[in-house]
Design a protein that fits this description.
Blueprint: H1 4-43, H2 62-74, H3 89-111, H4 119-158, H5 163-173, H6 178-190, H7 195-206, H8 209-224, H9 228-252, H10 254-277, H11 284-287, H12 289-317
Helix pairs in contact: 1-8, 1-12, 3-4, 3-12, 4-5, 4-9, 5-6, 6-7, 7-8, 8-9, 10-12
Membrane topology: Multi-pass membrane protein
Main location: membrane
Pfam family, one: T2SSF
């Protein structure tokens, strides 16, 4: 009974963290649906029209892979992006589960062995945070390089180079991840995949509406005619302004991000300083039961406070 208030406090903190994560996921999904709706209204369903029914390859493991993909999505794993991860997805997942075990060990210092029940929950939270960071960094790199990519395509088209060959040039000359993605697109087009369909596949992998706009512009130009160079140049200017606006938002939030970093680092720096000045002063935190409770509670509150500040900053920039 003596640990009941602490258990309730930790439960409330964890619930608040899950609510923040859920709000971020919900807002991202809503923004994606809103952009997809704008694309549909602009194109009026004329982007991709299949004129011939193509037989689909039968995968005997499809009925097993679909539930697995849904289960992995709970941990934030996107199998479409898995080839682009810095390490195999299962390695990242195991590391995230191990990190969750460390956090749960700190929680058990506060609430006792009942804290082990939070291990699955913490595994999901940490895994989603890790994979979300990987996805965000790659999408940000693709978005920042996209205006230069469009400018290269415009120059190639104006000197008479076909779009397919321009894609191959971008795959060879642009840095990663854009170079690798456009090399993949050029290979898909070379074996017969429609260009707009290959670009929409890239938009689905990167979760960037800008690539959807790019595919829409190419599709409408191919169907209705017009100057491709002028269309892509206008699109490049619009996307460059979007990138600049996003960079301005990050610059304006620099003070808040620095404050969050300093506030999170102060307890660590203070603890190390006390340990150097008076080595035995903090031993009570590691040698007594009450010390374990205080230390575990402090670490849990520090982690949740850092995640909360990070979530607030990211939501303000989204």
């Amino acid at each position: 009974m003596s640990h009941l208030p602490l258990l309730l406090a930790v439960s409330l903190i964890m619930t608040a963290g899950l609510v923040l994560v859920g709000l971020n996921v919900w807002q991202a999904d809503r923004a994606q649906r809103r952009l997809a709706g704008r694309l549909d209204r602009v194109t009026n369903g004329l982007v991709i029209v299949e004129t011939e029914e193509k037989p689909k390859a039968i995968n005997p493991f499809a009925r097993f892979l679909a539930p697995l993909a849904k289960l992995l999505q709970v941990f934030g794993i996107d199998l479409l992006r898995a080839p682009d991860y810095p390490a195999p997805w299962w390695v990242i997942l195991l590391v995230s589960i191990g990190a969750a075990r460390v956090v749960v060990m700190l929680i058990t210092m506060v609430v006792g062995s009942i804290g082990l029940l939070m291990w699955p929950l913490m595994s999901i939270v940490i895994a989603r945070s890790v994979f979300g960071t990987i996805h965000a960094k790659r999408s940000s790199a693709l978005l920042n390089q996209f205006p230069d990519t469009l400018a290269t395509i415009v120059r190639c088209v104006r000197v008479g180079i076909p779009v397919q060959e321009a894609l191959r040039i971008i795959g060879r000359d642009m840095p990663k991840p854009t170079g690798a993605e456009f090399t993949r697109i050029a290979d898909q087009v070379a074996i017969g995949t429609p260009l707009d369909q290959a670009l929409r596949s890239l938009a689905e992998r990167s979760r960037l509406a800008e690539y959807g706009f790019f595919a829409t512009a190419l599709s409408l130009q191919a169907r209705a005619g017009g100057g491709l160079a002028q269309t892509l140049e206008t699109l490049s200017d619009v996307i460059r302004k979007r990138v600049a606006m996003k960079a301005r938002g990050y610059a304006m939030a620099a003070e808040a991000r620095t404050s969050a970093l300093i506030l999170g680092a102060i307890p660590i720096v203070a603890g190390l300083g006390i340990e150097l000045i008076q080595p035995k002063y903090l031993n009570v935190l590691f040698t007594t039961q009450k010390g374990h409770v205080i230390f575990g509670g402090a670490v849990c509150m520090l982690v949740m406070g850092t995640l909360t500040m990070r979530s607030i900053i990211r939501r303000s920039l989204s």
